[in-house]
Every structure is written in structure tokens, then in C-alpha cells.
Specification:
mainly alpha
Amino acid sequence: MTKVALSRPRPRRTPGVVLGIGIGGLVDGILLHQILQWHNMGSSVLPPTTLDAMRQNMQWDGWFHALSLLITIVGVFLLLREATHNRQLPVARGLLGQMLLGWGSFNVVEGVADHIVLGIHHVHDLPAYDPAYDLLFFAVTLAIIVAGWLLATRGDVAARSRLRATDLLVRTVIEP
């Protein structure tokens, strides 16, 4: 009887993280820019107080949304590539954790770059800037990252212990 060591590597996190970066951008744009209307991409440097300024801010928002959608699509294709190359895929909680890590990473980069370094907008610019919202944004981002790390780590363990269809085939054929 031949023993076969079945290696189950940890699922790659890149596809889920890239998906999370794109989805994080879409959540930011849809929720904060459009639904709550707390800021636009450049509302600190060009307050949308005239029709022309509103038009310019909407155009910047549109480019931001297009980039977020493109990143999301790249994440989908990265995940598809993992599946078509028969690589270990994450379980649902692992993928959710990876996506939360991506969303949190997006928030950190976007928050530091846009809110602090460039100052092109803040979480709540309209009708007036309130720094408490930026602090709350970073606190929520920290919670998103911690939750993502915990879910991704636990998901990795679950994925490594899960049998794949190819594992069953190997056991059936090689270990009769």
C-alpha cells in the first residue's frame, strides 16, 4: 500500500486582497461620495460650490470609480486564475478576511495620501470639514484590518484541512 502525502498549501491571499482594494474603493465612492455626499475626490481643493466645480469633482470621482472597478475586475481574474490552475482556493471566511485586508489597506493608503499628505479631501468635507470623522475613519479601518487578518488566518487553516476533488482522486487511485 502506497502512502501519499497530500500537501495543501495555504491559499494565496493576493486575489482576495486585490478584490478588497477594489471593493473598498467602490464602497468609499458609492457610500461617502454619492449616498452621504460627505466629500468628493477634490472637495478640499475645489469645493463644489459652483456648477463648474461640481462638474470637475464629479469627473474626478468618475476616474476614481473607474480605477476602483478596474482593480476589482483584476481581483476577479486573479481568483479565476487560481481556480483554473487547480490551486487551493480560500474558504468563504478566508476570502472575506482577505477582502477586508484589502479594503483596510485601501483605506490606509487613501486616507494617508488624500487626507493627510495631499489634503485633497477629508471624510467629511461638506458642508464643512470635521476632523473627528477622519479619526473615526482610521479607527474603523483598524477594526477592518484586524477582523480581516483574523478571518483570513482562520480561513487558511480551514482551507488547508479541506479536501479537494483532486485529493479524493489521488486517494482512490493510488491508495486502493
